[in-house]
């Protein structure tokens, strides 16, 4: 596991999760797409969060979910949670 | 009091995905009960079912729609669309606030629930899909139908096991008749082929190992089926004024409770439902020519239903035609009343009485004219359709030829 997460790769992975969970083409989703543009409503949002939790084995807090409005915000949030998890699991490395 | 017209019907079941297609098969006595596509592992004690094998939801709905709609809700929406299309009614205009949606379903969305339990109890994963609730809720179909057509009036789902649909249609009928609403979409849907549910039916020991044979000698139980039936009910004068083609009339409804036993049927409850339905329709028993029976094919139902019909109709029971179309589309539980209401309407309009298929020979305890195996040409003025549920809840609808 690299010390620094590759944001591009993480972004691509998250876009794939969103596309899969929303049954929309990967190409239709850009890093700068807002959920509004993608017609992702609040219920879709919690479904995406569920899939992200499974994919990355993380726990996304309820307060965090309400603030997600774009793909970029989602990538950033997930990156922070993954990094926090690694710090907890391997305290010596950080 | 207003007369209540039926101006559209929609049907999905083992015999097809359009009402006319299903009726053509039913009117010929074709049986849609087939070997199960998934016989179970280890196999279920029954190997036949009336699965809607040709129903492909993506022919009607998008991938994203399917995220939110389980099979029972998908079929409800598809049947409702067909019914509305046939009726030509536009709910978006002045009818939006003056219409109802009432559906029936016995168990709602069973697949998502079982999927969730699998994760929880087998895989020991505590996170279940956040769509479990909207997919599972028994009103998922009713809600989507009201969304699709922009209906803002009363919308809800009735769950009374095998009487769900007749209770739903009966309630909608009374609403339209009383003037509470001008129009309604009413019916029901059920998708029973989920493993947990099939095992539960297996445990009740009422499912036939082969095809069901209602009222027949040698019958061994019911055949489970899946599907949906939806009807557009309309204030008669309103339908006439907009030039709608009226394809049937609902004239009455009777509901009763056995208050006797949770699963064992009795004669008095069903007899009361039929008698009250006749009274509600202001018809004499002699005016009824056909009964689409509950006719499940279990030992107990068919005998008590026979006795209930004889108790209600007296000597006239001898000249009544009584058939069970479940012998062709299976017992669709919460959808049964709706599918059978549509069969009854077609029978009246076309002058063809659908047979009781798979009939081997008479059972002295079911001594009615059950129209065995062959359809019969007959002009009938009015007909009943019976549903009797586990829990002892009965509902009978009365239809008139138009």
Describe the structure in your own words:
The complex is a heterodimer of chains A (94) and B (402). In chain A, 21% of the residues are buried. Chain A is an all-alpha fold. Chain A has one domain (7-89): Orthogonal Bundle (Non-ribosomal Peptide Synthetase Peptidyl Carrier Protein, Chain A), CATH 1.10.1200. In chain A, helix 1 (7-22) packs across helix 4 (71-89). The two termini of chain A are 13 Å apart. Chain A contains 4 helices and no strands. In chain A, 59% of the residues lie in helices and 0% in strands. Chain B is an alpha/beta fold and 402 residues long. Chain B has 2 domains: 4-241, 3-Layer(aba) Sandwich (Peroxisomal Thiolase, Chain A, domain 1), CATH 3.40.47.10; 251-400, Thiolase/Chalcone synthase (Peroxisomal Thiolase, Chain A, domain 1), CATH 3.40.47. Chain B is built from 13 helices and 14 strands. Chain B has helices spanning 19-27, 63-68, 71-87, 110-122, 132-136, 140-149, 164-178, 195-204, 236-241, 268-281, 299-313, 326-329, 336-350; strands at residues 4-12, 34-35, 48-49, 99-104, 155-158, 183-190, 227-235, 248-257, 288-292, 321-323, 352-353, 376-377, 382-389, 393-400. In chain B, the strands form 3 sheets. A 10-stranded mixed β-sheet of chain B has the order 5-4-6-7-1-8-14-13-9-10, sandwiched between helices. In chain B, strands 2-3 form a two-stranded antiparallel sheet. In chain B, helix 1 crosses helix 13, helix 3 (71-87) runs parallel beside helix 6 and helix 10 crosses helix 11 (299-313). The mean pLDDT of chain B is 97. The interface between A and B is small, with 11 and 11 residues.
């Amino acid at each position: 596991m690299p010390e620094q997460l590759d944001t591009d790769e993480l972004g691509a992975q998250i876009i794939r999760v969103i596309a899969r969970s929303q049954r929309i083409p990967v190409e239709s989703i850009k890093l700068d797409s807002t959920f509004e543009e993608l017609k992702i409503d609040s219920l879709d949002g919690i479904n995406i969060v569920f899939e992200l939790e499974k994919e990355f084995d993380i726990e996304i807090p309820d307060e965090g979910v309400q603030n997600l409005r774009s793909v970029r915000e989602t990538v950033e949030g997930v990156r922070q949670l993954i990094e926090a998890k690694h710090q907890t699991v391997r305290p010596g490395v950080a | 009091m207003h007369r209540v017209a039926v101006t559209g019907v929609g049907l999905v079941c083992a015999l097809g995905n359009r009402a006319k297609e299903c009726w053509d098969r039913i009117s010929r006595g074709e049986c849609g009960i087939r070997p199960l596509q998934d016989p179970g592992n280890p196999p279920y004690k029954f190997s036949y079912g009336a699965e809607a094998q040709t129903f492909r939801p993506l022919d009607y709905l998008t991938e994203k729609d399917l995220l939110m709609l389980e099979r029972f809700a998908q079929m409800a929406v598809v049947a409702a669309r067909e019914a509305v299309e046939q009726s030509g009614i536009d709910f978006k205009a002045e009818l939006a606030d003056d219409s109802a949606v009432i559906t029936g379903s016995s168990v709602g969305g069973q697949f998502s629930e079982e999927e969730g339990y699998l994760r929880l109890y087998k895989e020991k994963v505590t996170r279940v899909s956040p769509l479990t609730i909207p997919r599972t809720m028994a009103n998922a179909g009713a809600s989507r139908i009201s969304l699709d057509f922009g209906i803002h009036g009363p919308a809800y789902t009735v769950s009374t096991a095998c009487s769900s649909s007749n209770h739903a249609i009966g309630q909608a009928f009374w609403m339209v008749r009383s003037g509470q609403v001008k129009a309604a979409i009413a019916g029901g849907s059920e998708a029973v082929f989920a493993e947990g549910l099939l095992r539960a039916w297996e445990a009740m020991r009422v499912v036939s190992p082969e095809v069901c044979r209602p009222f027949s000698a040698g019958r061994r139980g019911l055949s489970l089926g899946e599907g949906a039936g939806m009807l557009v009910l309309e204030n008669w004068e309103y339908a006439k004024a907009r030039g709608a083609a009226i394809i049937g009339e609902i004239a009455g409804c009777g509901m009763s409770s056995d208050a006797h036993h949770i699963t064992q049927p009795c004669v008095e409850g069903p007899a009361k439902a039929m008698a009250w339905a006749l009274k509600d329709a202001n018809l004499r028993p002699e005016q009824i020519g056909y009964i689409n029976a509950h006719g499940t094919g279990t030992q107990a139902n068919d005998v008590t239903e026979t006795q209930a019909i004889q108790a209600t109709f007296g000597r006239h029971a001898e000249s009544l035609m009584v058939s069970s179309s479940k012998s062709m589309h299976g017992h669709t539980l919460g959808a049964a009343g709706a599918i059978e209401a549509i069969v009854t309407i077609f029978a009246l309009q076309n002058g063809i009485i659908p047979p009781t298929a798979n009939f081997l020979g008479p059972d002295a305890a079911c001594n009615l004219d059950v129209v065995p195996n062959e359809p019969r040409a007959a002009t009938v003025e009015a007909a009943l359709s019976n549903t009797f549920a586990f829990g002892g809840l009965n509902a009978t609808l009365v239809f008139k030829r138009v």
